[in-house]
């Protein structure tokens, strides 16, 4: 996509390697093509990435307390929707090797995918390319549903998050909000609701 | 060209700063029961809000996406693996596209 817009191939690869976030990459490449100001680019990147603030905070409580700062900084680089989905639903405390494994292979795949994507034009038929768009979301469903089946709290938190994000999408006035903000507001509201209605039992449960 | 490079640099810095600050600062376990519960539920809340309604707009046709979503929900309900659920959804959407267009 970026190559079509006049960005050199090596820059698209550089973006992929340094910006590990798909929505951010798309938006960033789009803004560069549109000749946006650096200020606009900074602000857009902040808004698009704001939900990772929440994910990082959530993971900070999940990783082992002994993990040194250096390793925390390394792990932070690899926080994406996908790695967060897997790591946050892991039952045990998270150690460094676990995160490293979780991050490295998608990272390589990601970089390789960009190279292949930029260099060759797509080989898949159009309809299949569009259909593939649903794959990532389907994986999120595969991650949530089993937990939502077992825990009433998880079910209601997920349901209210969906309800609120739908409201931001479809209700007048509310739908002026960008996608990044609506995700974080919906997530904060739904988590708070969960924390009020289903406060955690004592330590033994964690 | 140098403007493109500075744009890429800024993008990288913003993207990384947002991720590294919370995880680097909150080294100690948080004690408050409310905040602990809150963070326990954020994965579900974030994933839920990210998935819906976004999934409906993921293929270019809302109805086909809805069919794919239902397929994914059914497969996930029977606790199929990630890949199976994803392929099931993609297959359902492709089928709709081929049959109905």
Shape of chain A: globular
Main beta-sheet strand count, sense and barrel state of chain A: none
What is the average per-residue confidence, as pLDDT of chain B, rounded to a whole number?
89
Number of strands of chain B: 0
From the spread of the alpha carbons, the general shape of chain B counts as flat
Helix coverage percent of chain A:
over 70%
* Most extensive chain interface and residues per partner: A-B, 95 and 79 residues
H-E order of chain A: HHHHHHHHHHH
Nearest-angstrom radius of gyration of chain B?
A: 20 Å
User: Which class of secondary structure composition applies to the elements of chain B?
Assistant: mainly alpha
Summarize the topology.
The complex is a heterodimer of chains A (206) and B (101).
Chain A: H1 9-18, H2 22-33, H3 38-49, H4 51-60, H5 69-77, H6 81-88, H7 96-119, H8 126-132, H9 135-150, H10 152-170, H11 179-197
Helix pairs in contact in A: 1-7, 2-3, 4-6, 9-10, 10-11
Chain B: H1 2-25, H2 33-51, H3 62-77, H4 82-100
Helix pairs in contact in B: 3-4
Characterise this structure:
The complex is a heterodimer of chains A (206) and B (101). Chain A starts with 8 loop residues before the first helix and ends in a 9-residue tail after the last helix. In chain A, helix 1 runs antiparallel to helix 7 and helix 10 runs antiparallel to helix 11. The longest helix of chain A has 24 residues. Chain A has a domain of 82 residues. With 206 residues, chain A is mainly alpha-helical. In chain A, 37% of the residues are buried. Helices cover 71% and strands 0% of the residues of chain A. Chain B has 101 residues and is mainly α. Helix content of chain B is 77%, strand content 0%. Chain B has four helices and no strands. Chain B is flat, with a radius of gyration of 20 Å. Classes of the chains: A mainly alpha (206), B mainly alpha (101). Chains A and B meet through helix 1, helix 2, helix 3, helix 4 and helix 5 of A and helix 1, helix 2, helix 3 and helix 4 of B.
